[in-house]
Amino acid sequence: MGEKVLMKGNDVIAEASIRAGCKCYFGYPITPQTEISHYLAEALPKIGGVFLQAESEIAAINMVYGASSAGIRAMTSSSSPGISLKQEGISYIAGAEIPAVVVNVVRCGPGLGGILPGQCDYFQATKGGGHGDYHNIVLAPNSVQELYELTVRCFNLADKYRMCAMLMADGSLGQMMEAVEFREIEDIEAIDKPWATNGMGTRGHSNYISSVNVNPDELEKLNQRLQAKYREVTKNEIMYEEVNCDNADIMVVSYGTTSRIIKNVIKDARKMGINVGLFRPISLWPFPYDELGKHASHVKAFLSVELSAGQMIDDVRLSVNGKKNCYFYGRTGGNIPSQKEILDEIVKILEKEDR
Amino acid sequence: MGEKVLMKGNDVIAEASIRAGCKCYFGYPITPQTEISHYLAEALPKIGGVFLQAESEIAAINMVYGASSAGIRAMTSSSSPGISLKQEGISYIAGAEIPAVVVNVVRCGPGLGGILPGQCDYFQATKGGGHGDYHNIVLAPNSVQELYELTVRCFNLADKYRMCAMLMADGSLGQMMEAVEFREIEDIEAIDKPWATNGMGTRGHSNYISSVNVNPDELEKLNQRLQAKYREVTKNEIMYEEVNCDNADIMVVSYGTTSRIIKNVIKDARKMGINVGLFRPISLWPFPYDELGKHASHVKAFLSVELSAGQMIDDVRLSVNGKKNCYFYGRTGGNIPSQKEILDEIVKILEKEDR
Amino acid sequence: MLRAVFREDRCKGCSLCVVACPEKIIEINNEKLNEKGYYPAGMTHPEKCIACGMCVTACPDLAIEVKEVK
Amino acid sequence: MLRAVFREDRCKGCSLCVVACPEKIIEINNEKLNEKGYYPAGMTHPEKCIACGMCVTACPDLAIEVKEVK
Amino acid sequence: MPERLVPKSLTDRVWHYCPGCSHGIVHRLIAEVIDELEIQGTVIGVAPVGCAYNNYEYFNFDIIQAAHGRAPAVATGVKRVLPDRMVFTYQGDGDLAAIGTAEIIHAAARGENFTTVFINNAIYGMTSGQMAPTTLPNQVTMTSPNGRDTSSQGFPIRMSEMLALQDGTAFVERVSTHDVRHIIQAKRAIKKAFKVQQAGLGFSIVEVLSTCPTNWGLSPLKAQKWLEENMIPYYALGNIKGKDIKV
Amino acid sequence: MPERLVPKSLTDRVWHYCPGCSHGIVHRLIAEVIDELEIQGTVIGVAPVGCAYNNYEYFNFDIIQAAHGRAPAVATGVKRVLPDRMVFTYQGDGDLAAIGTAEIIHAAARGENFTTVFINNAIYGMTSGQMAPTTLPNQVTMTSPNGRDTSSQGFPIRMSEMLALQDGTAFVERVSTHDVRHIIQAKRAIKKAFKVQQAGLGFSIVEVLSTCPTNWGLSPLKAQKWLEENMIPYYALGNIKGKDIKV
Amino acid sequence: MQYEIIIAGFGGQGVLSAGRLLAYAGMIEGKNVSWLPSYGPEMRGGTANCHVIISDDEVGSPIINHADIAICMNLPSFEKFEKLVKDDGFILADSSMIEPLKLASSHKKHHDINATERAFELGNKAYANIFILGKLLAVTKMLTPESIEQALYKVLPPKKHNLIPIEMKALKTGMEN
Amino acid sequence: MQYEIIIAGFGGQGVLSAGRLLAYAGMIEGKNVSWLPSYGPEMRGGTANCHVIISDDEVGSPIINHADIAICMNLPSFEKFEKLVKDDGFILADSSMIEPLKLASSHKKHHDINATERAFELGNKAYANIFILGKLLAVTKMLTPESIEQALYKVLPPKKHNLIPIEMKALKTGMEN
Ligand SMILES: Cc1ncc(C[n+]2csc(CCOP(=O)(O)OP(=O)(O)O)c2C)c(N)n1
Ligand SMILES: Cc1ncc(C[n+]2csc(CCOP(=O)(O)OP(=O)(O)O)c2C)c(N)n1
Ligand code: SF4
Ligand code: SF4
Ligand code: SF4
Ligand code: SF4
Ligand code: SF4
Ligand code: SF4
Ligand SMILES: [Mg+2]
Ligand SMILES: [Mg+2]
Description:
heterooctamer, A: alpha/beta, Rossmann fold, 5-stranded mixed sheet, C: two-stranded antiparallel sheet
């Protein structure tokens, strides 16, 4: 059991990466996640690691591609517009099947937008912002403690499945300080990487990393292998939290920063005699469709609360599959809904459903 | 009535853009759509337009952003990996509310993948490959004739709604020759652009084009305006085709190249006494949710046929909303399903549903 | 009379005008903060101002003009 | 004896070896196509080959080696 | 002595820049040049992502806010379709010399007929002080906490010299803002660059050595001194290309 | 005279390049250099997007296929984490001089200790013959159907000269493949570049003037002649930086 | 009526333009037609092919999974496309370019015609493609030579229209063989 | 118990570090705490603020919509945050920096304390922030000065630990005012 320290979310992501055995970081400055690179510019050289500020986000993701191809744990981080620029690279990582950790400290868009917290990159992260059929593992922490734990998990999953794992935070999580305890949460397994292009040495054959294949049958096989892997991830790696779900009148679905607000709403609602449940997907991909959907049998309705104009709501609907009505409440531009706003919305929905 | 000519799909897109009043094209070479730029490199200078081969896809989309900001109809085209690189730019176009036409002649991914036809950029195109809450109008032709008509429509819609309109074709449509008739399909309205940054001249006040706003309330207002616009587009601009839908046992949902195959499947199936319907979304965004969903009352099941590992199927499910089972059949890597494969799949599904 | 006029509300107290003035007649007023929380610059001897505009050129905040004053 | 050996299946008939050979003993065989549809190069006078390897250096298709032949 | 009022080409909004920041100085110079050339009605500026991201609030003529680094591409788009307008980009060193390297070099190589004002303050100002491509050897920044170590973090890039190599580039000059004399020279260079554009001679750029007191951790006055003593020896002032052009 | 067999560092697969294409010539040179330096086991190559996109099928050592233009970033990632390996990128002129401009310049400026082999054939080969940044004035391509018009399509870029400007660059040489004598010189330059990397001296690059008979619309022999008569006058052959390095 | 035809050979044998001609002629006769070339890096390999569909009905996928006819102008094409020909379809093979033994061993119906040789006799082996088209018309009667002639006027740039008589001669010789 | 506190002032007045100190002390006393600064280009404007929550319960959103307490170290902050204070909350205002008239016209409860002046008397106006924290402890008893002292050891780098006694003196003077 480690000591509790008060740390900034972005610093915790950085520290977590080092504890996860990340040996190199490539990034390009963007608010609100610059502290990650400030921290690692100090820390990585001290442990013989590589900190490199790239000339752009595109260069950074491709440096990660290079270092990961060589078999070394590597990370990049950015925020919304910078993540958009990485989409080609992320698609290459998927196609070439190499591990990589990408952190998105989401701000609010579209365009240059603002730097305040947002959850409006949900579609991009979970449906594939890049071209082609692929998925990233997407984990969404809601506390500084989870920033630590899920960052480490991203590295482990990336290596295990040879794919990109994305940590999806937001400006509020990245900038806030909270208590964190760096407990040993998982063995950082030294996963063997016989596929790595680290020089053929005495291996006896050359390795190559590539996502191209002009033979349609072979390219289809690659795609089938990818899809099989994604099914495997879906089977094994779904994460979610349930609060007060069993007797809930209404199920609020929310992740990250907004899910924290819902926890307070639950208390407020209880005072009014309303039972609000919180279903918090932690893995946004794979999304806990079945786990969420099964609540359709006992709640009156679902409400997705997001810092967006309505994105996760699609996955909520797909989970519920018409069995109950699904509602949406969201704020954008960096505004955060208050407990009261959400509670009012809940009351309105329940009145409508009870009518 | 014009004469019918036999033309290559890519050439038709190019010719259509000129007929739509496009005055400038910025692009970067990529197979299978290079003919668009070959055609325009010849044709645009002849009419005093601008053809410019950019240094990259990113530069190209930002040149479009510049020319469109100045109030001139502009286009760029590319294919999957190149479109991924344009995502930041597309998000800026959404946020700044300027018109733009982007053509994606989809190949098969992920990564460098292959150059044969694919529909695996559906998510990227319709859910937002870039960051932030935004949508592009996405039109999916299935013939060379429609390449003409929908390219023109993209320009008109882009101007009308001040947003990005994407023409989504694939390698097969771009490379094939078919008869096309350049009939006058719509007035190319000279839409007034008082917002354009074309020099303040005697306007009396300066204009600016921007997507940034660090004030959350103002940025939220922008987002609300965008969402209102998207609702407006959804109300006015949905396009789809229905073939043999009224008495269909099963409804196949398919767009672009694959929808052509379904038309033949319908005939094959009829010989076997099976009534297959084809619902072909032409506007992929806005998606015809209600129009498709209403068929749930009379068909036994839905089948989405795509050149992907399953993307539009999500929108099919959202349309049907649990009322009937939705199945998926797809090929990837550049392979195209044969009529027989699809018919076999249909038979299997109907057997299962009838059991 | 043409001379420098300071717009205190725009001033950020950076002192660039202070060193720019050939007559050495500009000073930062350490007594009062303006609304933005800065100590604004001003002239110690307005009458000595030669309206050379050096301070205007140096000022990054459009806080000085040279103009006709009564 | 060391001399040039042509691997016709790799040859694309580009003629670069023809001009590279100081002995002028390489020619394109216009009579037969190889499997890939090219007219392959070969030596008109193998015995005159001085094994200089110029053709090897010139060949873009790894279609020539200089080696010991009986 | 003439009056020195707020230039017509500026609005009266209070700027958000930190005390002593060169951005404000250069904004004024550009506005004065535009007033003097009487082109306010035909100018279209392109704003960068950087501390000057919202300079459309300060400039009183048409402006397009561009994505980070892409201002030269945006300017190309505008100038190509409206060749009779005066187009300029305003870019920081992160914007122009890092993420936007390809865009500025290719605009120059193509001889795009617009003007670039390049604010080189050797740091990323907006994002609070990371190393830029132009950061000096041993300069301390948030991402070079022990000073830029050229053996692992590379060498500063002299963009102007590189751009001058391009055949499409007509005019290149490096100027500074560290005292009034140099500010006046800077204005002269900016004016000439605009005139080069008016004459249709190709790409023109003025690199303005600038201060970022906040992220350098120096007072405005000390920052000017630091610029003079450290940046100028590395980034030689003066005309680099197009000295003899008469416009 | 020694035997001249297929180099160990090449597989025996038949290449997909068009008849007379320089790619094959350069592949062989690289493989010979690697054999001679006995580094096959430590080499990691980075393949571009371009006609050589799948050269991992031909080279018999580890290779990473990179996204278009990004090979220098990928190589940076590899070399930074495995500094004792020999890393090189293989890039075409579209790859290196257009979309990848920023990546190559910054790798050079940072003094990344890898080697670049730059195949300049003045055209986009793979995508069937569009204008490249290096396309010569008046050269006809699919996107310059009336010949590259420098007034609207800009001027060819001399990448090697630009890269030589970077302080992180140790070695730059421009060579050609238009006849055997020059091919032999090309090999010497490639070998020296690798040795510069072995000595840890920083970024090294060899620009190889190359033919694309197919897209130039010329026979292989005429293409070599065209290269000699048109490209060399524009792209001067010889060492540009690092001549005096002894390795 | 619907014909799905694959035409394949080395680059330079004019397989793409033969296909285009066929499609154009079909369109002239009021049919629905599509033409799809192989594209991309395959071209480097030195072989080329195109898929042509001529139909009374709407054309479904322009990509042919099972061909009615495969016109094979060289050995690799013969080997690659033989198996795609329907059981009741046939192959048109340029026997100047394909070993007789290989042709003989085929299970599919095939018409062998020494197109390249005959074209050479007509003055230019480049006419092999149109010569073999003649054979196709003779065997199938799918289109008239007049439509091909009209198509030639559409497909060829005006400055090459003087060659049309020779092309037509090659076509007719092909029809008579 | 839950306190939602906004601390605001000019950059350089130490509002962020005051907040951090408070949060750290809260954590030391076993509370759940969060601290969130204003960030990004706002810093250019010359003002800064942070949101601190100290609670027995889990902390929901770290962003404060309605504050229990607003510590305003200058006029713009007072004007901006006054309206966010709950009706039963209060303002702690640095009356050295805010015109008395403005303070007097406020509808919200406020404790005025001339922190900057008093800090100046203590040797450095940089202690105004900790001085005002002292007042906060005195008014609310939310944390003990001992926790603040422990927090100082955590928050300050070792080479600045020698300053802690002076900081504590400022704190205690603040408590007594
Ligand atoms: C794609 C993208 N990457 C990164 C950023 C974050 N960002 C904002 S400004 C800036 C650079 C600021 O430096 P510079 O260009 O030198 O301008 P300055 O602020 O110093 O004037 C960066 C990296 C962004 N907004 N978009
Ligand atoms: C992001 C992206 N843009 C464009 C392409 C298409 N593309 C493939 S190769 C190539 C360039 C080929 O030219 P060059 O680099 O000169 O190589 P060459 O083929 O001439 O050897 C391009 C633009 C791509 N695959 N990815
Ligand atoms: S105008 Fe000249 S003399 Fe007057 S205050 Fe300014 S600098 Fe000094
Ligand atoms: S230069 Fe301007 S902002 Fe700075 S102190 Fe002088 S008047 Fe104030
Ligand atoms: S080895 Fe020399 S002499 Fe022999 S064929 Fe080759 S080039 Fe000619
Ligand atoms: S150089 Fe090689 S490929 Fe070319 S003709 Fe000679 S042997 Fe054949
Ligand atoms: S951060 Fe630097 S560049 Fe930005 S406004 Fe402040 S001083 Fe100027
Ligand atoms: S297209 Fe050009 S570069 Fe590519 S293989 Fe053919 S000749 Fe070589
Ligand atoms: Mg800067
Ligand atoms: Mg090339």
